[in-house]
Amino acid sequence: MRYLIARVFSILLVGFGSIVVAETADSVYLHGRIYTVNEAQPWAEALAIRGDRLIFVGGNEAAKAFIGAATGVMELQGRMVMPGIHDAHSHLLWAGLHLNYGCRLQEQETIDGIISKLKQCAAGKDKSEWLLAGLIKHTFFPENKPNRSWLDRAFPDTPVYLREMTFHHALLNTKALEVAGIDKNTPSPPGGEIIKDVNGELTGELVESATILASRFLPRDPVERQLDALRWSVAVNNQYGITSVQDAASNLESLQGLDTLDKNNELTLQVAAHFIWGNPGFGGRSNDDLLALIDDRAKYQSRHVRTDYVKMWIDGSPTPPYFTQADIDDRGQVELSRILIAPDKLNEMVTRFDQAGIKVKMHVAGAGAARVALDAIEFARKENPRSTVRHELGHTNLITPQDKPRFKQLNVIGEMSPSVWHLYGRTLGDPPQPAWEFKTLLDHGVLMTVGTDWVVTPTPNLFPGLKGMLLREDESIDLASALRMLTINGAIAVGWEKTQGSLEQGKVANFIVLDRNLFEIPVAEVSETRVLKTIFEGKVVYEAGGGIARQPDSQQTRGAP
User: Fold this and answer.
1) How much is the pTM?
2) Which SS3 state, helix, strand or coil, does residue 300 take?
3) What letter does residue 209 receive in the DSSP assignment?
4) 2-78: which CATH architecture?
5) pLDDT digits (tens, 9 = 90+) for 152-185
6) Angstrom distance (rounded) from CA 220 to CA 225
7) Of 34, 249, 295, 379, which has the fewest beta carbons less than 10 angstroms from its beta carbon?
8) Which CATH class is domain 93-215?
9) Measured between alpha carbons, how far apart are the two ends of the chain, in Å?
10) Domain 86-91+221-543, what architecture?
11) pLDDT of residue 546
12) How many Å apart are CA 19 and CA 130, to the nearest integer?
């Protein structure tokens, strides 16, 4: 009610110029170039905030009427302001653990460098203790062929588990295989593969769901370490202007940690926590146990954490050397052998979740997986014709021409991944195919969001990806459309558009101040944009130079995540 009163008086103020506003603001921001992402009022000069809400968005002179004796007045000096960014795909706990406590191998690009780093990480540990490290690429190894023999020479008695760059695969040494009970006679599980060489010997590589055969033996992190990791991840997100995020694989530990932070008033992000189903490797539990967690989801909901979301993986990763994505073959058929959840079961589960009001995000790397996911949503639409739940395809890398119109027809959101271009380039698969067709999908009326997939990316900084969206040759889009994908579209995807995603009276005061005006600089400079200040619910949670988000030390070896 107080916001309605403020709205009425602010209208009177503008109309008559002499009416005194009934309530004063806690803070007022003046003289900015404020891009609101509100089509009815794209630009403003000033904002007024009371509590966690915007009570005024408009001109400088009108805003001054909201200033009282206790109001904090902030001078923007012509800086650009925009709504807080929504990261549509992140992994808060994994990122915090790996970048703060993990044995990090990204900086190593040779086997000698990897072994040297692993020895540093193992120093002082009992040799029987698991050594977990990552993230590796096949190119780090001689002839681009990862093999356990390189690890065995240095660690004959220590179980070593190396995560691959996408988290989809792993490389183990012989000791780790022994501890996990894996030998050359162990059958590959559905949706995964235990790799063997031409002689039938184990290489140590575990692909997709085969990783669960070993990862279930890894020790869990202490609770305080998990909380510290989450605190750090939240601060880093604020540093890059992110005020809301889809945590795209929330396991039990992540859910418990987020709940603790929120109860302690330490969570300065709005989080859409996506429960895991259909992938025990990522979930760390059986599908039955994962489903029980989903059924109990209200237990983990709090002020800043919403839990009506599920994440499923339909296929693998479109990256070498394994190429586990599900494509469309030469006959126009889906490569079903690479689909991780049987289509009939997927139809059943998407329909079940849809009926319960749960939004489903489905990882789709290949065009075949995208088709299977769209088929499942179409099935659910027929079973639940009154449902208004909007589901989302994660990554949306490769989509066939005939499937592109189905997004709008089925009210499906396409989450895009421009931040991973630095890892894989702008083509994916084998043979390479153009990926992330922003303009084509936009022309088809697809509502798109943008995610970083952090920890796969070094940081959750979306500005380099934003530049790429504007410089895609035939697939380039305009800046206004791109900024919608980073803001209001993300809010729509998770059902928060009435309170977040744009700067309007009555909405939550989540916004950022930038060091440059994105509309006035060369596109090539967009990637260099820095956030000067992040405001979450009306309070400054990050300020450049404030030292809020400590940077990960590449030599840090405080243990294994």
Assistant:
1) 0.91
2) helix
3) G
4) Roll (2.30)
5) 999 999 999 999 988 999 999 999 999 999 999 9
6) 10
7) 295
8) alpha beta
9) 47
10) Alpha-Beta Barrel (3.20)
11) 63
12) 70
